Amino acid sequence: MTRSISILGATGSVGASTLDLVRRNRGEWQVAALTAHSNVADLSRLAREFEAEVAVIADERHYDALKDALAGSGIEAAAGRKALCEAASRKVDIVMAAIVGCAGLGPVMAAIEQGTTVALANKEALVSAGEVMTAAVAKHGARLLPVDSEHNAIFQCLQGGRMEEVRTITLTASGGPLRTWTKEQLDKATPAQAIAHPNWDMGAKISVDSASMFNKGLELIEAHHLFPVGLDRIRIVVHPQSVIHSMVEYRDGSTLAQLGPSDMRVPIASCLAYPARMETPMDPLDLAAIGELTFHAPDEERFPATRLAREAAQAGGAAPAVLNAANEVAVAAFLGGNIPFSRIALMVERILTETELPSPPRTLEEVLRVDEDARMRASAMLEHC
Ligand code: NAD
Ligand code: MG
């Protein structure tokens, strides 16, 4: 029996890993929508290869180019934010939400409103919308399957017990490429150094987040919404080998962990096949060859991001959306060579503490307004850097 899938952010790193699995099981999948921001060449090539029903380019200026690139294929071409949401709300068995940033929130909500199963990689959407998204999931009978490797690990470990029997959840963190750097060295880290992740091959934004530990901060908030065990029961441990992807400890003292290669195709496969398992081209786990698994506590002096995220999660309301928006602006500024690496966390902290927080958003529109407003404040702050 074939299943249908739409992939939001098809030209990115998670998009490519998802399409790799679909390609290996071509006869089992029917591709409905594929979307991208502005890369017409890749989007049209993928749409043709996977015989998609519709290809959507978010940046409207590329509509004519997409239409030309798809001419004669019978594939519908569309452009713009509205088209992105329409594509996300097509009836399919599963939507892969792999857009980066809060830009993916509207489409994710559109899929949820159809009661669709959403494989969620786009953590910024859940961090920003929090309760608005989880309430919509409940209201529309949708389902979120976590793609993020840590959350997917926890999701798998939770099959071994009940939520009310969980004592703690531990998110593992690789620590990123700058893990051992001193404060002085961190000040001088370049975008190329921050992106050079030792274990994972990912998009630029999440790679910088990984280097700053904002990725783990966002994941803490993500876990808080996906697994309601209470913020004080969610821990973070640095584990540079990235073999254990996260753990769940139960009240009887048993800790279940999920182990595997640092390859996003593993958690993606777990979502695509859920609740079954599918074949992937992974080498068997060879612990003897790996030799050592090490762990240490995060250093919040050098990497304040996890503290800031915990504080934002504790404050609740608009705080996580503000944290996320400020981080997105700061990361873009760092990647553009406009601010030093350590200014990212400083900027986020200043936006959170020096400006008055808006009232808690209750609808998608209100979340988007909080996001927009925090972006404006962060951009204004950049001008004075
Ligand atoms: P990426 O930069 O490689 O790809 C992002 C995709 O989103 C691209 O297809 C791009 O065209 C699209 N996009 C970007 N901006 C957009 C916009 N404004 N409107 C519409 N589309 C837009 O990113 P990625 O590494 O694949 O990450 C995607 C998401 O998955 C992120 O939220 C990230 O945190 C999460 N994630 C990624 C990994 C990983 O290994 N890459 C692991 C866990 C979670
Ligand atoms: Mg992760």
TrEMBL record:
Keyword vocabulary terms for this entry: Isomerase, Isoprene biosynthesis, Magnesium, Manganese, Metal-binding, NADP, Oxidoreductase
SUPFAM superfamilies: 1-deoxy-D-xylulose-5-phosphate reductoisomerase, C-terminal domain, Glyceraldehyde-3-phosphate dehydrogenase-like, C-terminal domain, NAD(P)-binding Rossmann-fold domains
Stored Pfam families: DXP_redisom_C, DXP_reductoisom, DXPR_C
Enzyme Commission number: 1.1.1.267
Residues covered by the 1-deoxy-D-xylulose 5-phosphate reductoisomerase C-terminal domain: 144-227
GO biological process: isopentenyl diphosphate biosynthetic process, methylerythritol 4-phosphate pathway involved in terpenoid biosynthetic process
GO molecular function, one term: NADPH binding
Pathway: Isoprenoid biosynthesis; isopentenyl diphosphate biosynthesis via DXP pathway; isopentenyl diphosphate from 1-deoxy-D-xylulose 5-phosphate: step 1/6
Ranges of residues in domain DXP reductoisomerase C-terminal: 259-376
Binding site for NADPH: T11, G12, S13, V14, N39, N122, E124, G203
NCBIfam families given in the database record: Dxr
Function: Catalyzes the NADPH-dependent rearrangement and reduction of 1-deoxy-D-xylulose-5-phosphate (DXP) to 2-C-methyl-D-erythritol 4-phosphate (MEP).
Protein name: 1-deoxy-D-xylulose 5-phosphate reductoisomerase
Organism expressing this protein natively: Qipengyuania gaetbuli
